[in-house]
Amino acid sequence: MHFALTDEQCALGDAVRDYLADRFALSAVRAVFEDLGGTGNPAQLWKAMGEQGWLAVCVPEEYDGLGLGLVAAQAVARAFGAGVIPGPWLPTVLAGEALALAGSDAQKASLLPAVASGALVATVALRGPAGRYDRSGVRVGADEAGRLTGSALPVDYAETAEIIVVAALEPGGEVGLYLVEPGLPGVQVTGLESYDGSVRTASVVLDGVPGQRLPGSSTAVFVDLLDRGAVLTAGDLVGLAREALARTVAYACDRVQFGRAVGSFQALKHHLADLHVAVTMSEHAVLYAAHALDAGLADRRLAVAVAKSKASDTAREVTAAMIQYHGGIGYTWEHDAHFFYKRAKREAYSYGDPIEHRDRVAAFTIDGISPTAVGS
Amino acid sequence: MDLSFTPEEEQFRAELRAWLADNIPPRWRSRSFWSAMPEAAAFELRRDWERRKYDAGFAGISWPREYGGRGGTPGMQAIYDAETQRAGAPHTVNALGLAFLAPTVMAIGTDEQKRDIVGPMLRNEVIWCQGFSEPGAGSDLAALRTSGVLDGDEFIVNGQKVWTTNAVYADKIFALVRTEPGSQRHSGISMLLIDMRSDGVQARPLRQISGASEFGEVFFTDARVKVGDCLGGVGNGWATAMLLLSFERGASGIVQYTAMRRQFDEIVATAATFGRTGDPILRQQLASRMVELECLRYHSMHVLTQVERGEDLGAGSSVTKLQWSHTHQELWETFDDLLGPEATLARPRPDTDLRAMQQEAMWSRSVTIWGGSSQVQRNIVAERVLGLPR
Predict the structure, then answer these.
(1) I need a surface site. Which of A58, A278, B212, B322 has the fewest CB within 10 A?
(2) Which pLDDT band holds residue A376 (cuts at 50, 70, 90)?
(3) pLDDT digits (tens, 9 = 90+) for B140-161
């Protein structure tokens, strides 16, 4: 039994954290937060992601990747969450997963090395406005000729992406995945202001745009891709939650009121202890879900739903406590707490919110629907 | 990540499964079988079954062979914990002795104590209970007042213990006694091994909110205990108790997970017969319970990994306790919410007897108290894990 990261996986996560702490501290995050007109993808940071191999983690080795899988990728995602790191790492990695899962050899050969090196910014458009993160939420349709019409939202970093993987309902009822170049006629990308300044996002409207189908795509691959997005987002959330908890504990040790550190009061202590338990469980859940997808375990969809719902709820509670236990200063723009709070909220709703994932848990465990069945 | 067990461990699983299948009558799996039986009769049945389990070689799984154990790995212990729960095996009658006293005796007992205590316990020839809590010493264990006054080569013991599991069935008690007159707090305490049948020792059952009487209280009135029946040295009782409680840290939560996973299905099945599994809010609540249950399962694999690596779990065991105990409590609150008014009735329909499930639901109020209340566990996590000031 080895339910833990390998030494190499630990070292990878630590290396990302150390690098970011040195070169992209919260002061740099703040600059991105306060430059809403910018790309949200500082050039030096993106260059580093390529050079350090962080974009290559999931790309198969034959396409110049590291082929380490999601267990390693979630270690990277945790470090990004802890640092509230901006940039299109997650959507680019996910687009690479779509290519690896369903792309033709030619598509993989032409695009995956660029994903791995950081030469290409890519993103995914898997959900329509106000939809769920499942087949019913797709608002793009494909016709027989592969022309795409409809809309998707939010599509992170669509304004800077050079390629978008679009999910579309096909005439036969399957969900297909299509590569779309944002510069084509009929593609309308509109930036959307988000209160989470650590991301840039957009809506994408398509009107008869020719898409390049990934030949291996299917509803099952689409569901798998969403699960991968959910696990990486959950990884970001637990990294963020662990860091927010550590910062709150540190402040509670320093802040003196009534002649003593406020962290000595049980009113804070007991809640912070409960949050430690919740963060610990969330970490286990993300690790298990990532492994379940890597290893193709029978309960992988249940594991993803457990991990995403637990990590989302936990990160929201921890970041709310972070503001509360910092007192008045925690509610100011100049304090960093709101970076954590806002990102936690956005990510809690991304790739399926806790209610949607608990619906799946209920289906698997109350109704007895097999977690290996392809969900709608 | 490698979530597999070794071939030897899987072989052990197969043998254990086969034995359990042959030796647990199907009717034992029903709650009503046990709840319909008088407590004393149920205790004897469990005692006898466990004795047969010993004879078959399935006792003391990870204990050394020299003590009558199987000499197995931590993985085999985890498999045992899961498989016995899955099969609906009767609960052990010697829980506190097996979990706490035996490993302590093996670690620091005299040769005589090792010989006289461990084997007979495994064979259920001697049932042990634990005498720690007192009316004035619950969470604050160091406030204990039961006294032992030296008289020749014996202590004369006076005082009261309470919330003592199996008090009325136990043959012996391992009790914390203040043997140094006038001593305060953690000093001057000894762990005495006392015969429950000796003069001056009286046990009485305590009726719990569930109606059952697993607990009891023990009164000592000039009970005489030989100085040699002290574990870990006279005056060294606090350190002995801390060592003893540290063996709880091997507990990964797998027993609780496996038991609760069965309870979840039992609750869903019962609610389904009342047509109460379609409500979207209740489904969300049930799903939340499953989320916490699955987290406990992953956590137990994490703990087993630590145990196999020989890591000290330390205050992490408080995390395990908080997770499983509150999950248990919320699971059974959800059972009540699912059934609504019917949840409060012994027989809401002629074909449905809910009393055994209601007992489990009532029992859930105790799990956040015994073994260190949640408030104490949170202090431990806050101070020893997070480093918050006292």
Answers:
(1) B212
(2) very low
(3) 999 999 999 999 999 999 999 9
Domains and CATH numbers, chain A: 7-117 (1.10.540.10), 122-217 (2.40.110.10), 220-365 (1.20.140.10)
Closest partner CB to A1 (pick from B277, B290, B304): B304
Beta bridge partners of B219: B160, B202
Q: Kindly state the average pLDDT of the residues B258-271.
A: 96
* 3-state per-residue secondary structure call for A192-250: ECCCCCCCCEEEEEEEEEECEECCCCCHHHHHHHHHHHHHHHHHHHHHHHHHHHHHHHH
* Integer Cα distance of A244 and A320 in angstroms: 10
Compute the nearest-CA separation of A263 from chain B (Å): 6
Give the containing element (helix H, strand E) for B294: helix B280-308
Distance from CA of A110 to the nearest CA of B (A): 32
Asked if A249 reaches chain B (Cβ–Cβ under 8 Å), the answer is yes
Amino acid at residue number A280: T
In this predicted model, what pLDDT tens digit does every residue of A347-362 receive, in sequence order? 999 999 999 999 999 9
DSSP at A4: S
CB A230 within 8 A of CB A352: yes
Q: What are phi and psi of A123, to 5 degrees?
A: -150, 180
- Predicted confidence (pLDDT) at residue B381 exceeds the cutoff of 90: yes
B295 close to A (CB below 8 A): yes
Q: Is B137 helix (H, G, I), strand (E, B) or coil?
A: strand
**Residue B91 neighbours by CB distance under 10 Å:** 14
Question: Can you tell me the distance from the alpha carbon of A13 to that of A63, in angstroms, rounded to the nearest whole number?
Answer: 23
Ramachandran assignment for B63, one of left (phi > 0), alpha (psi -120 to 50 degrees), beta (any other): beta
Interchain CB contact of B301 with A (< 8 Å): yes
Mean pLDDT of chain B: 95
pLDDT band of residue B30 (cuts 50, 70, 90) is confident
Residues of B classed as catalytic: 248
Residue A256 bridge partners (DSSP):
A261
Helix, strand or coil, per DSSP, at residue A104: coil
Nearest chain A Cα distance for residue B82, angstroms: 15
Query: What does pTM read for this prediction?
Result: 0.96
